[in-house]
Design goal:
The chain is α+β, with helices and mostly antiparallel strands. It has a single domain, classed as Beta Polymerase, domain 2, CATH 3.30.460.40. 28% of the residues lie in helices and 26% in strands. It has 5 helices and 10 strands, in the order αβαβαββββββββαα. Strands 1, 2, 3, 6, 7 and 8 form a 6-stranded mixed beta sheet that branches. A two-stranded antiparallel sheet has the order 4-5. The protein has a two-stranded antiparallel ribbon with strand order 9-10. The longest helix is centred in the C-terminal third of the chain and has 14 residues. It is globular. The N and C termini lie far apart (33 Å).
């Protein structure tokens, strides 16, 4: 399991080492809600494509190794000329997983997924979410984008419940994310 202490520590470690990231997934929802609502098996984060190589080196120092590449992964060349995967999971010796997806930012600060088969477009405001995990302030995607990112495919019941809490708290999206249409910005 990835505890609140684990998540806060990892996020702070990345920030302290100049890795800009946005917490997404279960911890991203809990960060927006400012409370842990359930146990989490992993820590999902979107990072800048140009930071992926550095982030992987930093996490290797903490024992993380590549567990697997997501189906939507592709190799992309970052701004430093390094070819790197864009959608993958790292695992440490204790079994904690970090699910990473890389973003590119345009000149206006909007985000575009660097991985393939994704029509999402993160407006600058979507990347301005703020939350709290274990007392640590974290950058995350907006509540609206969390709901949008979890539509168009079947979700486990725990994720449906997470999204219902976001919809209720922020008055956004559909109360039934499984059956709502996939929205893009």
């Amino acid at each position: 399991m990835f505890t609140a202490e684990d998540a806060a520590s990892l996020y702070q470690f990345l920030e302290d080492n100049s890795i800009q990231g946005w917490v997404v997934g279960g911890w991203g929802i809990d960060a927006l809600l400012r409370e842990q609502t359930r146990p989490h098996k992993d820590f999902d984060i979107n990072v800048l494509l140009d930071d992926v190589v550095h982030m992987r080196l930093l996490l290797e120092q903490r024992g993380y190794t590549l567990a697997y590449l997501w189906e939507e992964n592709c190799l992309a060349v970052d701004g430093h000329g390094s070819e790197t995967p864009t959608a993958f999971v790292l695992r440490d010796p204790e079994g904690r997983e970090v699910d990473v997806h890389a973003l590119r930012l345009d000149e206006q600060g909007n985000g575009m997924p660097a991985w393939v088969n994704d029509d999402r477009y993160y407006e600058k405001s979507d990347l301005a979410g703020e939350g709290i995990i274990g007392g640590v302030s974290v950058r995350c995607i907006s509540a609206r984008m969390q709901v949008s990112s979890h539509t168009g495919y079947e979700l486990p019941e725990s994720q449906v419940q997470d999204l219902a809490k976001l919809v209720e708290r922020f008055g956004i999206g559909s109360p039934d994310p499984i059956n709502s249409e996939r929205r893009t910005a």
